[in-house]
Amino acid sequence: MDPKPPRYRYQIAPSAPSVAAEVSLPGATTLPRVEDRLARPESREEYVHGQRVLAAPANAPHGDRHCQLDYVVRGNVAAGYISSTDLLTRTDEASDFATDTCVRRSGTDPRTGTRWLEELAFEVVAEQSRRDVTERAKALTARGVRRLVAVFVKQGEVCEWSAEQERWRPLDPHDVIVDPTLARPLPVRALLDASAADEAVAQGLRARHHPALAQVEAAGATRGLRKGIEAVCALLELPLDDARQRQLDALDEAGLDALLQRLRTDRRWPS
C-alpha cells in the first residue's frame, strides 16, 4: 500500500518493556509482540520509525496489481499456511505497519499467544518512493520476516529484498519463487500478467488437490471417455440405443475406461 504522510507528524517514545513482549534469547533486544498495536486497526494509520503515516487509497495501477497479487498468492498457499491482506505487524518499538499481502503459518505461536510472524510478504509500489519501501523492508527483515518481494508497477518489475546486500534484487520474469509457504513454485510473471496469474492459480489449486478442481478434471475425463466410446461404437457400427446410453450414464470414470478397453479388444458390446 502506498503510504501518505499526514499534514502533521510526531514522534513516539519507545514504550516500557511489558510481560507481553516476545520471548528473546539472553542478551537480545526484547521486542513487542507482532499484535501489540501502535496503529489503530482499519484507520489507515501506520507507524514507521515513530512517524505516523496514513495509507492512501489506491489509483487503478496500484489497485489492479494488488488485487491480482492477492488472487495469485491465495491460490498458491501451501497447507498449514494462510495469506492476509493489509495485515498490521509490529516490527519494533516505534513501527507498526502493514504489507500489501503476506503469508504466515496458520494458528497461534505458543511462545507469544498471538499469530505467527509472516514468513513471505509482498508490496505493490506505484506512487511510494523506493526509499520508503526500503525502510520498511529493513524493518521487516530485522523483525524476522524471511522474504519480501516488491512489485514495482511503473517499471513493470518484480524485485526481492536482499538484507545481506541491502538492495532490491530484480527477478527474471521467467523465474519462479520457490518457498515453503507456497504449494508450488510461483511464476514471477504471474505477478505482472493477468493471463499468467490465472494459469498460476489453476496450477496452485491442482497442486493443493482442491476438491472443486478435482471434480472439474474428473468431469472432463468422463466426457472424454464417453466421446471415445461413442467414436469406437460408430466405427464398429454398434448402435447406442437408450438402454446402452443409460448404462453409460451409470458408469463412473473407471467404469467408462474399462468399457472402452473391452470395446477395443472384443469389438462388440459386452453382454
Describe it for me?
- By secondary structure, this protein is α+β, with helices and mostly antiparallel strands.
- The chain has 2 domains: 3-207, tt1808, chain A (Alpha-Beta Complex); 211-266.
- It is built from 6 helices and 13 strands.
- The strands form 4 sheets. A 6-stranded mixed sheet has the order 4-5-8-9-10-11.
- A hairpin with an 8-residue loop joins strand 12 and strand 13.
- The chain is elongated, with a radius of gyration of 26 Å.
Q: What distance lies between the first and last C-alpha atoms, to the nearest angstrom? A: 67 Å
Gyration radius (Cα, Å) is 26 Å
In total, how many domains does the architecture comprise?
A: 2
Helix run count:
6
Biggest beta sheet summary: 6 strands, mixed
The fourth-level CATH homologous superfamily of the largest domain is: tt1808, chain A
Strand order of the largest sheet: 4-5-8-9-10-11
CATH topology of the largest domain: tt1808, chain A
Element order: H for helix, E for strand: EEEHEEEEEHEEEEEHHHH
Given as residue ranges, the uncertain stretches (5+ residues, pLDDT < 50) are: 4-27
CATH architecture of the largest domain: Alpha-Beta Complex
Structural class: alpha+beta
CATH class category name of the largest domain: Alpha Beta
Q: Give the assembly state of these chains.
A: single chain
Protein traits:
elongated, 13 strands, tt1808, chain A, 6 helices, alpha+beta, six-stranded mixed sheet, 2 domains
